[in-house]
Amino acid sequence: MNGFNGLGLHLGNLHLLSDAKTRSTSAENFDGAKGRGGMATEGTGAGCARDLGVGWKVSPSVELQPGATFAMADIDGPGAIQHIWLTCSPNNWRNLILRFYWDGEAEPSVEVPLGDFFCNGWCERSNVNSLPIAVNPAGGMNSYWTMPFRKHARLTVENRSVKPVILYYQVTYTLTDVPDDAAYFHAQWRRSNPLPYKDVHTLLDGVTGKGHYVGTYIAWQVNNTGWWGEGEIKFFLDGDKEYPTICGTGTEDYFGGAWNFEHPYGEYGSFSTAYLGMPQVIKPDGLYKSQQRFGMYRWHVMDPIRFESDLRVTIQALGWRSEGRYLPLQDDIASVSYWYQSEPHAPHPALPDPDGLEVI
After folding, report:
1. Predicted local confidence at residue 4, as pLDDT
2. One Pfam family name from the record (predicted)?
3. For position 169, what pLDDT does the model report?
4. Would you give the end-to-end CA distance of the chain in angstroms?
5. Residue 250 backbone zone (phi > 0: left; psi -120 to 50: alpha; other: beta)
6. What is the pTM of this model?
7. C-beta separation of 326 from 320 below 8 A
8. How far is residue 208's CA from residue 360's CA, in Å, rounded to a whole number?
9. 10 Å Cβ neighbour count for 350?
């Protein structure tokens, strides 16, 4: 194997051979078994394939009933998830809950509404052109986060809506040895709606163990007029209490922009790059859409935030008031934090009910 275990490739090692085995689950091969794809005799495409028969896109998707939980992947390891692609109607993105479980754990390591996980928290399509997350026309959602597991991986979707949902998906993974120092992938969703006056939005808290923080997505609704992004992000590491080890200088600074994201003059400049972006700017329409909404991501791929024992992450919401003073804002802020850590992990805070998840 030439020292390469098959967890992932980049251009520098793409030429190396490996004993890793590539497999994939989808509605055409639910368990990813070798030589068992495209054998369905019934499914959501059966009517369309009635003249062609088996092998002709008989089962391209699944229908999730209200309240049902479906396993997109249920895999014995060792190995690693390498790519997830899926798509469904945008109006369901907050009502579909992704949960990923590693090595038989009872509590999920990932628990996030589907749209937010893919940097689309407003239930409106927005293209994302980044390294670990890509969202392409018209709502094709892709994750390239490497997610190793040693014994077992289970990836589920819960339908919390009151209507059936059609879901197309494919989970591609490798079966290979996992190094002893490989950490487990985690992601957590939180919302402050509205953020209490003079409070901070907590992106992550209660994390214990050793690991590294690798990304932030925020869906931010501004409830005041004027600029809203003066607030600082803060990383409290390894016993930090009142004051953090890492403190940012402003919201747009953290997401890789500057000077209010204003470009050209008088407009927000949306952008989407490998590691940083504000791909979504939703403007008021003068009728029903009364607030400005933004979607922003920041991937710490080249600069992971390392922690030895514990981690807490917060961000302020600050605008301006008279006489050059800061104004603490009371905005609607929903966030996803992405990180790797050793297990066990602390349970995620309970997700709110459908009303608490809803984009309103």
Report:
1. 54
2. DUF2961
3. 98
4. 52
5. left
6. 0.97
7. yes
8. 34
9. 8
315 bridge partner residues: 201, 233
Three-state helix/strand/coil letters over 45-98: CCCCCCCCCCCCCCCCCEEECCCCEEEEEEEECCEEEEEEEEECCHHHCCCEEE
For the beta carbon of residue 229, count every other beta carbon within 10 angstroms: 24
Residues 6 or more apart whose CB falls under 8 angstroms from that of 262 comprise 268, 269
Asked whether 67 and 97 are in contact (CB, 8 A), the reply is: no
| pLDDT digits 0-9 by tens, 203-240 | 999 999 999 999 999 999 999 999 999 999 999 999 99
Identity at 59, one-letter amino acid code: S
Which candidate, 239, 185, 193, 251, places its Cα nearest to that of 215?
A: 185
- Rounded distance between C-alpha atoms, residue 80 and residue 71, angstroms: 16
CB proximity list for 204: less than 8 A, separation 6 or greater: 188, 190, 213, 311, 312, 313, 337, 339
Same-fold call for 1-182 versus 184-341: yes
CATH architecture of the region 184-341: Sandwich (2.60)
Task: Identify the sign of the CA torsion 10, 14, 20, 24.
Answer: positive
Query: pLDDT averaged over consecutive 10-residue blocks of the chain (360 residues)?
Result: 65 90 98 97 96 96 98 98 97 96 98 98 98 97 98 98 97 97 98 98 98 98 97 98 98 98 96 98 95 98 98 98 97 98 96 95
Q: Determine the 3-state secondary structure of 323 from DSSP.
A: helix
**What is the domain partition of the chain in residue ranges?**
1-182, 184-341
CATH number belonging to the domain at 1-182, selected among 3.60.10.10, 2.60.120.1390, 3.40.190.80, 2.60.210.10:
2.60.120.1390
